[in-house]
Amino acid sequence: MLLKKKLAVLGLAAVMTVAFMPAMAFADEAATGSTTASASNAQTTTGTAIPDDGQLASTTYTLTNNLTRSLTVKNGVTATLDLNGKTLTNTADNHTITVENGGTLTITDSSSTKGTIDNVSHQKAAIFNNGTVTIKGGVKITRSKETGRNPKEGGNNTYYNIVNNGTMTIEDADVTQSGGYSSMIINGGSADSMLTITGGTFSGGINTVKNDDYGTLIVNGGRFTNQTQSAIMNWNKTTINDGTFENTLTASNDNGIVSNGSYANEGQLVINGGKFSGKHLLGTMTVSKNTGSVDLNNGDFTGITDTLVTSASETETNKHYSVEKFISGGTYKALPTANLQDNVAQATVTNGTSTTYAVGEKDIQKAAEDSGNTVTVTKGSVELTGANAKIVNAGGKVKVDGSNVNVGATVQPNASQTIKKLQDQIADLQKQIQAAASQGSTAKANITSLKSNLEKAQAELKEAQAQVSEGKTLLTAPGQVMNLKAKAGKRSAKLTWKAQTENTTGYRIYRKVKGGKYARVKTITKATQGSWTNKGLKKGKTYYFKVRAYKSITSGELWGAYSSTAKAKVK
Questions:
Q1: Fewer CB in 10 Å around end: N or C, the chain?
Q2: Phi, psi at residue 301, to the nearest 5°?
């Protein structure tokens, strides 16, 4: 029979799908027919032998040759399987590895070639888990006889590579499927299930990873590629903290790299990071009046080529699912104005001929750390620290290293440090080129590389000097504060440093306790002052201090480098 499910999927054109769609909208599982594999019962492990019936005991098994056998981990058993670069294939019409409820299995590979778990039977998985499974060591997991070609053509041998109805952690694996009819990995569907992915490569299936009914999916890393529907399809609860997600489909596709929806489920999708490339980021679907939710807090979405959000269903019920204002962070090729939360900070980031848009303080801070950028804050409130970029306040509430930047003003923090670093780099490259030239023709390739780096550094220097110029005068920031010392007193700490008058207006003093963050505690407006006493401190507590010089200019302030840290344990 042709199996179809309420697959909340937005195709690969969208990296993800928030599932809320009609039950018959997408095919997801195997067609009729069967394929069998020839069996070999030769013993192929070191140490404890795998029994002929494939039931593992609580020990470690290491393959020494390819093996055709279906393995089972029973309740109460804790086993380890080391593929050792070999291939494990199922016996006819069985899952390759089955872990029962209460069973625990670790799958790894200690070799450099990396082994494979394969399944060649219709509607059977390489790994079928109802217990606890950990996969690591770069293990390969596939269905080499998969016949599913597209959502409408399953052929006679199609299914998931991995089925998880228990608890599974994938630390490092290479999971691939050539088909486009079944999802490649399914989490949940009939029981509470937890799948955590921290690394590996995952490619194929109608959806690369499908988080189904009752499933909880956490992605902390890995590379996910799909060319049929979605890299990640979520029905219940998914959190993406990091990773690379790609939809490589070139044809017209209104699905998303990530799909999200709700059936009888939560339909909760949270994106805290990652890099996403495809036509659309997010596909939304519904098959009921349950409303799902999407929270997009951070990530790189500059690879999205069309609208950020698309809907895979135009059904009447789809109106119950809204993702109008779900974005509080991220970096974008085009500003997703309609989806931004109210009052969220926004900035235009230019670097040469490139323009992107940063949303939220975290992404604006990241952009501000690149000395090649000009970051123009257009809306919202941000407090930036350690910035190297040119910062322009074009309509927001902006602080740079604790100092307000007025609307219409521009500051270039760390300008002199950036320029000095590039000047030193250029001088060093020139010396290296001269030295390499004396080595004759053998150094030709090295000279070419050095010259390329030199040209790049010279271009960066020119850009940095242009960014920090006011009129035609190069602005020079103060030097680093030197000789900072802290002397403990009675509920106080006295700081002393070497005062400097060149290019200096005054000093900012920062303080923290162990495990805390530095905060500005004092501004000194005299360049000649070289001491200050911090009173009212807690007896017996250790405080850490650092000092930074600043120079006031008409468009804001320039900053010197932080001093070394001084500490004092208060009496």
A1: N
A2: -115, 20
